[in-house]
Amino acid sequence: MGVYGLVRLIEPALTQTVITPVLDVAGHAFQGLPAQVILGNSSDLGEAIAALDQAALNRIEDGLAEALGLPFLLSTPGALPPTPPGAFNYPEWAGIYYATSLPVDQETKRYVVVSTNRLNAHSRSAMVVRTTSQTKYPTEGIAFPAIEAGSKHACCGDLTSVLASSLPLHRSFQPQRLSFSDMQSVAQGLVQTHLLDGALARRLRP
User: What is this structure's pTM?
Assistant: First the structure.
């Protein structure tokens, strides 16, 4: 699944509005959000302080699949994840943004928002995937799905969370958007890179 950053929820009432999974770790409630961590060696994360059981890991997988809209995108037939009514004052699902807080080699890169608008409307963060114009080959699997008529690829293994405030959200800004079929391809890539087959099967089970 990658790495999840855990944010402790101080107010118990907040657990009623959190869409991503709420986990109990050592008697405290935490909200989990995916994070991109580049490790130089195995010791960079430090010592383990607790181990989650399979039930907790399943909740993380299920919550991540839900937050990414996978049950909608990858159902048969596919469907758009629902959007709350009202104006967009948050990062839009399928919108493409330059994220100043996530530079790569000191360059500001393009990211596509992959978390659903239901989550984006209620969270200070959004989940994003970096795009690249570098050539990717079929041997690299669907982790780098072609998007934008093949001119770009989505780097699904780079799924991470970013503060909404780091994206251009002023009223006059209208982001470019990926097509529905592109977002389905990205969803398939995220299932592969973050091992969400089990969560998708549980959610789509008749």
Answer: 0.79
